[in-house]
Amino acid sequence: MKRGFTLIELLVVIAIIGILSSVVLVALNDARGKVNDAKRVWDMSTMRLALAGYYDDNQAYPDGDGSTSTCGGLAELTSSLVPTYIAALPVDPGGGSDPYAYDTEDGQSYVLRADLQNSNHASLAQSPTGIVHGCLCENQAGTNGYYCLRQ
């Protein structure tokens, strides 16, 4: 009697392994998105502390991108905050384009915004909507979610 596996048995095992690996990859990508979003929210908290330190010393928040219609990324804050108030400005943990936005209307209030990969995170509360110089604290087309801080 020959020992071994039939072709059908091998194909069934290969199909089961393929299904299991696809389920694991989907779960891994979802977990990676949640980690990236948690990092973005942490970065926003760090920026809030840096902006509070700047405000304490200058009685105003640093200028944003200077535009009255859109909010800019965090790069405009480099000369104001680095290295005195923060070691380095945050970068996107997902390696994509800059998901962060900052703007100030009059130096006495600001908006910080981060676009999230996944809006279904119960732990990431979405803050109230509002506009400062066109910097929307609400979901924009093309984004899955947002996290917004207003001061």
List the helices and strands and how they pair.
Elements: H1 7-58, H2 78-81, E1 100-104, E2 110-116, E3 131-132, E4 135-136, E5 145-150
Antiparallel strand pairs: 1-2, 2-5, 3-4
Shape: rod-shaped
**What is the N-to-C order of secondary-structure elements (H for helix, E for strand)?**
HHEEEEE
- The secondary structure category is alpha+beta
How far is the N terminus from the C terminus? 79 Å
Q: Largest beta sheet: what is the strand line-up?
A: 1-2-5
Radius of gyration: 23 Å
Largest sheet descriptor: 3 strands, antiparallel
The domain count comes to 1
The counted number of beta strands is 5
The proportion of residues in beta strands is 5-15%
Q: What is the average of the pLDDT values?
A: 78
Helix % is 25-40%
Task: Please give the count of helices.
Answer: 2
Unreliable sequence segments? 125-134, 139-143
Summarize it.
This protein is an alpha+beta fold.
Model description:
- This protein has helices spanning 7-58, 78-81, and strands at residues 100-104, 110-116, 131-132, 135-136, 145-150.
- The chain has a 3-stranded antiparallel beta sheet with strand order 1-2-5, covered by helices on one side.
- It is α+β, with helices and mostly antiparallel strands.
- Helix content is 37%, strand content 15%.
- It has one domain.
Structural features:
single chain, 151 residues, alpha+beta, 3-stranded antiparallel sheet, two-stranded antiparallel ribbon, 2 helices, 5 strands, 15% strand, rod-shaped
